[in-house]
Amino acid sequence: MGLVSLDEIRAARELIAGKVHCTPVFSSRSLSEATGLQVVVKAECLQKTGSFKPRGALVRLAHLSEAEKRPGVITVSAGNHAQGLAYAAAVHQVACTVVMPAAANPRKAAAARGYGAEVILSGQMSEVFERCKEIQEQRGLTFVHPFDHPDIIAGQGTLGLELLEQAPEVNAIVVPIGGGGLISGVAAAARALKPGIKVFGVEPEGAAAMQRSLEAGKPVRLDRIETMADGLAAPFAGENTFEHVRSLVERVVLVSEAALAEAVLFILERAKLVVEPAGAAGVAALLSRALVLPPGTRVAVVLSGGNLDPARLRQLLASA
Description:
alpha/beta
């Protein structure tokens, strides 16, 4: 199983040109002072659909044959990939079905419907892949994996290309991990362009599929998931993403729910950006010292998503 190449990521950028935003990079004096580092943030929370997900989805659909597109596509998602694929399907004029856990964020489900997708709510996150497979076979749909496909990884890697063009001075990048598609693509791009750069991953303590997989030496499935960061609640690490992380990522660290909550509010107050718990994981790692880097390190943190449920925000503000 090979790793995605820089050429593939550059080709992916050509495929999605004009269909996604080149999201901004901001310096953060508050975060720099709080951590003793030189911090910039990549505000992917301002991307179309509110997260990085359209990048990979657009690339995957661009590579499907007409025969694969004709019946429509289907996927599973806690929310952000649902919106990303629904948007990409609308761009490519392909029918889209998404299977989401019954307790999925209703606003994310509504947003996916708004882009034209059929949304099916069913069971727990650990069960939705089986339900998706049943529907796929019944209807003859084409499955688009939310993270574990080279096209998806290449598409997410376009964020890494942008980041190093916008902030070429950085020597470390911190990326949230759900299934691992984003960190795989970013690491593939960054390490090819700047071999000495270090890429770090962040998972919630209650959804640590990638760290558990690294410990086991192979992809593993979690028996239980408990985190407010629904965007990082993948029940397993993928074969492709595991190989990328094992080969290219320096270390994966875990953050607590309290650290995620603090990071969401810190970003809101100091950077004036609305970021969901999944998107705030990198900031949580730095503020909580789950990830400690040498003083003065020039580090970029990817704010991967901004689809924060207002009810969750009210809860966080009330407990602050």
